[in-house]
Amino acid sequence: MNVMAGFADTIPGERDHARMDDESDLPYRLARIGRLATDVRAVVLEMIHRAGSGHVGSSLSCVDLVSVLKFDQMGPAGGGDVFVLSKGHAAPTWYAALMVSGELDRGEIGTLRRIDSRLQGHPDRSRLDLVDVSTGALGQGLSVALGRAQAKRLRGDRSTAYCLSGDGELQEGQMWEAVMYAGASGLSNVVLLVDHNRSQNDGTLDEVLPLHPLAERFRAFHWHVQDVNGHSHLAVRDAVINARAHRLQPSVIIAHTRKGYLGPGEVLLNGAHSGTLTTEVYRDALAYLGRVSS
Amino acid sequence: MRATRDWFGDALAAVGTSHDKVVVVNCDLASATKTSVFKERFPDRFLEVGIAEANGIGVAAGLAQEGFRPFVASFGHFLTGKFLEIFQSVGLNDAGVVLVGTHAGLAIGKDGPTQMGLRDLALMRTLPNLEILQPADGVETRQMLAYLVGHDRPSYLRLCRQPQREVHDEHYRFRFGQPDVVRDGADVVVFTMGGMVAVVLDAAEALAGRGVRATVVNASSLPLDTAAAGDLVARHEHVFVVEDHFVKGGLIDEVGRIVLHRGRPVRFGSWGVGDYGQAGSPADLYRRYDLDAEGVASRIAAFLHLSTPDTVKGSQP
């Protein structure tokens, strides 16, 4: 089966369409993000299905966040912007985004979680340098992002350190050490996106350890807070632009998402944290996305 | 006599002048770790994260990834206690952080075992890409700082609180992994490091009065060069290791591994801290744990069957 067959050979350039000079390119941008996010979902599903394991729900919930960053808001790889996937178990999403962007060979799609693969179960920079920071044990990514943001500030570099964390991950103490430090330092060149899918290994966030009121907690630590629908590319895009424009405080985007989200009304494996992706479920999901598995 | 942490504070500020990529991440212990000298001279490159070592380690890893050479300093016990963060954010990222762990061994004294760096080596030795350095005196501290700013590998610099005399002259040149023979003998080779080097030299002097010619090796950086350490072992029938650290996981295991890999029988003995440690004055503690010159001499003498120690101060494997 080859879901990649449905891809355009190359991603169109951002201005590669006919339009009047005074016309907003926003509709085009949103359409492009949408199409590429669907590609990412399809690759995530194929990767995890072929690997026989992987956190499919957690990977799907953050596809839209990663897609907005990777395909619309972040500079090119190696260009200064940094992306830290603190919720490292969503590694397939990052690998898929790299494949869709053309930075990672699509031939590696079947190597996820296999011996000697560059596509480790959690992002490992020592094996794949398209990973900015090795992550996996939760709670550590934001601290490293802050170090990178500090370095940029010391150098007078205007690029941004993005960090994507889970919401259950906010139960880790180190996250709040980092939140405290960033707020006190006024590190405004860091943007934290919280994939707020309200679900973790042993159940819902509220069952395990509630974080309510999350926005107020960040505000108390002197962060600029935005609450958005994490599956709305428009909302996420606006929030990221707002976050970068806010030059006084670090910014957090609390992105409300659904675990296993495929599209409106369509959630995989009932939103489970990690469930087995049977061939039947996999095929149904691809069909929903408009892809055909052979 | 000064402590290696004091020499470190001055040496760090000195390399800070010539290396503008050197930054300090401090965890509310600038006066104790002596990064305060750097802070005074380079306030813009001194980042205070507060009493939050895990975050400090992560911030340092991020700075290192961006091309800086961060020194994150705290008591060795606290810093290496954040092992998961060191493993992942520093180790697996191959981030060029210098972890500076001060107050190694029993010397913190009256504060007791919750502050004592007695298992830091055991943890740091497990990481395949991390270099461990522990200077024996001021000369070696300065040499090590020059070495550390000359590359960007993850490193653990282990420093002492107690004042130590100089065991090197200014001609000494530190070479990573190379065992440094500070006294040449023939009957027994004694490996040690850091604050114990001068102590073992004093013990060797005392043993000389009893006809024992001891070679004393300052194993100041790990992993030790296997061939060089093995050659030293080959020249002796008796090998002994002394360290101000738990008996498991540190220098004893490092040297023991080299001895075993050689496959030629030698007699092997060791001495370190066999329990959690306890509160007390440093002098009382080193005496109690047979890690002062007299105690070390008695342990080596017992190993060589010259005598039995006066008292049994806890059994060790």
UniProtKB/TrEMBL annotation, chain A:
It comes from the Bacteria. Keywords: Metal-binding, Thiamine pyrophosphate, Transferase. InterPro entries: THDP-binding, Transketolase_CS, Transketolase_N. Belongs to the transketolase family. This is Transketolase. Its cofactor is thiamine diphosphate. Pfam families: Transketolase_N. Residues 36-280 form the Transketolase N-terminal domain.
Automatic annotation (TrEMBL), chain B:
Pfam families: Transket_pyr, Transketolase_C. InterPro entries: PDH/Transketolase, THDP-binding, Transketo_C/PFOR_II, Transketolase-like_Pyr-bd, Transketolase_C. Gene3D superfamilies: 3.40.50.920, 3.40.50.970. It comes from the Bacteria. Residues 2-166 form the Transketolase-like pyrimidine-binding domain. This is Transketolase family protein. Transmembrane segments: none annotated. CDD domains: TPP_PYR_DXS_TK_like (cd07033).
